[in-house]
């Protein structure tokens, strides 16, 4: 067995430098010679002893070192365990808080824990929560209370913080415009004297213990509407309590050990960290009988939105038939808090170092996550792909268990998705009904391994392409005419409002009123009829039975559809060729469903519900179902509104402009 | 004794382990017929587990268990000392910068003078089981057990997934591989090499990958050709390895070189079987040419789908080197490619468990010279390789036999 020869090489070098130093000094001070020599001898002796010990040690450890030198992948030797720093014995923290128009910062014991001087962002009230025993930052938030409803989010957050935590507040730019009385009163109850009188462009800092003492507060009034208050800097001291006092005393179980680790690190998760009556972190939902997706891996794609991830995982782990062993959470970046959430639930988490920017980064994260999923579960034929801003329906796995065989047996399928783009409160009705659509909705879907490995992975867009992965997957080169299976009523709910392509207005308009199934164990209807040829028969049957609506009426009016229930109606719209969606887009607009691009179509046919009746829309003459149109009916044509100068089709992202 | 106690521990935790101890399996293998047929009669003597040794080795499939903490606690209560070896997950190694939680590779449970070595096997892409190397970290007790005597863990290893057989041995119920002798034969040849993913990434930084449609298409075809070839040869029981450009692709970039035009495999001439040609033809790969003969410079080429060729080079062993031959069809010239001696290791390549020379660097350098790190697109098999030698000319009367093209 070969011996490790790394360390002895260090010896001569160290010796030489010592000698050089001695020589230099001797030129001037002969008196030091003796000392130097003794020193050198001593040093030599020590090095020799150290080295002998090292050699002995390494000889003993030779087994571990033996590795093919060219194949050395083991970093273990490098990350030697550093002894843990003894717990901070200091009882007092120095806290500095700065508030101004263009910059805020917070420093704890000289360490900057918040610094925001970026232009045109970070407006509002910044809140930091410290652990009262360790002084560690447990949460960091900013609430843009210049804008509406942000104060409500702040109240919600502050109410979730445990008693005894240290709260630090500071305003950047403007934080009072939409700070309503409820929020002001809450701040007052925390000990702030200024909060009730905070006004336009005031600067403000405050440090206090939740349910306890106030450590300091500073305020600078804005002298006039057009100017800001002077910058304020608050310096104060915070007294730490003992660790005992800062922790809850839950029974010592595996689950509670996880809970304790989590709750001592982060804040803002409400009752999961409640001492008295903590909410469970294990759910044990009913198992599914004959679960066909028990062994299907589930990849949860996450970024740095730990609160979303927390909500998402709760709903996922509560879904019937879930198998936690198969879940892997892929976190885009080295973020600690999402990983803490993953560990709280005892799941496997994988972090992914970001390699490119924005959309392309999300794409690369998706690719890495999918590849890793199939590496970790080499026997899997499918993977369920979820995102961190989804609620998962209680019968999500039941829905997949009943439908997944279609992916195996029908090659004309691209995916199964839990999301119906057109499934709004007023347009979706039947939890047991499935559709085939030519679009790829995402938002909770099943991917076939062979599709990924043989087609998608090899030509996945490279980072410099800056493409959205889902847009890319929807392109005809990838989809190749294949379709996805979707439910009428979605099995996922998109709750995220802070995302790359998301903002409050957008979410309100397009996602909030989406229907979400809450009924357990729904038995899907006639799944077999979703196969390629069977579906055509089914559609023809439906169209045959459908009553043709009165085409002289305005299709946007409610009265267009009679006040019945459970009937099937059909209308015909003009659609000159396959890509002519002019009338459809106008119709989608007035029906208040997804109109930003075309979704949910199957051969020029759309299926939805109106007033609890199945409502079919056929595009004539492009759709093969046009033949069902009675000769007397003229397809409805709806003209797009004349474009006004400078009008924007999609709502613009509200810019965080300086006030 | 210790084994019994351990099995008690394991079954109390519902952990399905199986016996892979080479010594005990060796004893079992001698009586395998008898063991298979006799059901639990009380055995007169302690025949298998009482053979003198320091360890007993068991295997565990990773996905069959999880409650580690409980296991350790119970083990401690029963008087076991334990040690666990963690490692980063090799299944994520090929990925851009993913870091997961570390995975357990080995456990050792010690009681008095005997120890149980529990090897964790992971299922990987390519339908095989993998176990990791046993490397101690700095803070671990190096004298916990005589680690060098362990049968598993000196290198990572790759194995077929065995069928298990529940048996009763010395009054103990255990699971063993259904065919112990097959498993025992695998052990000495199980060494596994991970692809050099870090170097591959560095390579692609220098020479960005070709993502054109043709490259994607070629890789897809080459991959399925390789899968088909592996299936065919494995069915015949013929050992083969990645050679030439395919081997270089694995070693340098962990992928198929998109401009390489063919798939290259090596086979030792001692493993040659006459069935090889018909087997490939049956698999839908017609013979394209056959050069040389079994006694000298044999080389087979099969036509794959979409203009991709499968080249099989037969390797001849001399006292201090190995070689394979080449033949130029139009001139009858013979060439000889020399390689330093090598042994075979397992690796994973395009979701396939395949052999490569363990001494890959020497192999690749012999073939491509010290500049193998730099991609070369124009390659002449008669002059470019650094290990090529002229080897005379086939006598005219033999041409019909040694130069067959279709």
Automatic annotation (TrEMBL), chain A:
It catalyses: 3-O-(alpha-D-mannosyl)-L-threonyl-[protein] + UDP-N-acetyl-alpha-D-glucosamine = 3-O-(N-acetyl-beta-D-glucosaminyl-(1->2)-alpha-D-mannosyl)-L-threonyl-[protein] + UDP + H(+). Pathway: Protein modification; protein glycosylation. Its cofactor is Mn(2+). It is found in: Golgi apparatus membrane. PROSITE patterns: GG_LECTIN. Residues 123-212 form the ILEI/PANDER domain. Pfam families: GNT-I, ILEI. SUPFAM superfamilies: Nucleotide-diphospho-sugar transferases. GO terms for cellular component: Golgi membrane. Keywords: Disulfide bond, Glycosyltransferase, Golgi apparatus, Lectin, Manganese, Membrane, Metal-binding, Phosphoprotein, Signal-anchor, Transferase, Transmembrane, Transmembrane helix. It is a single-pass type II membrane protein. It comes from the Eukaryota. Its EC number is 2.4.1.-. One of its GO terms (biological process) is protein O-linked glycosylation via N-acetyl-galactosamine. InterPro entries: Glyco_trans_13, ILEI/PANDER_dom, Nucleotide-diphossugar_trans, O-linked_mannose_GnT, POMGNT1_PANDER-like. GO terms for molecular function: beta-1,3-galactosyl-O-glycosyl-glycoprotein beta-1,3-N-acetylglucosaminyltransferase activity; carbohydrate binding; manganese ion binding. The manganese ion interacts primarily with the substrate UDP-N-acetylglucosamine. Interacts with DAG1 (via O-linked mannose moiety). Interacts (via transmembrane domain) with FKTN; the interaction is direct and is required for normal location in Golgi membranes. Participates in O-mannosyl glycosylation by catalyzing the addition of N-acetylglucosamine to O-linked mannose on glycoproteins. Catalyzes the synthesis of the GlcNAc(beta1-2)Man(alpha1-)O-Ser/Thr moiety on alpha-dystroglycan and other O-mannosylated proteins, providing the necessary basis for the addition of further carbohydrate moieties. Is specific for alpha linked terminal mannose. Belongs to the glycosyltransferase 13 family. The stem domain mediates specific interaction with beta-linked N-acetylglucosamine moieties of O-glycosylated proteins. It also interacts with its product, N-acetyl-beta-D-glucosaminyl-(1->2)-O-alpha-D-mannosylprotein. This is Protein O-linked-mannose beta-1,2-N-acetylglucosaminyltransferase.
TrEMBL record, chain B:
Keywords: Membrane, Transmembrane, Transmembrane helix. Pfam families: FKTN_N (PF19737), LicD (PF04991). Residues 237-274 form the LicD/FKTN/FKRP nucleotidyltransferase domain. InterPro entries: FKTN/MNN4/W02B3.4-1, FKTN_N, LicD/FKTN/FKRP_NTP_transf. Residues 1-223 form the Ribitol-5-phosphate transferase FKTN N-terminal domain. Belongs to the LicD transferase family. This is Ribitol-5-phosphate transferase. It comes from Nothoprocta pentlandii.
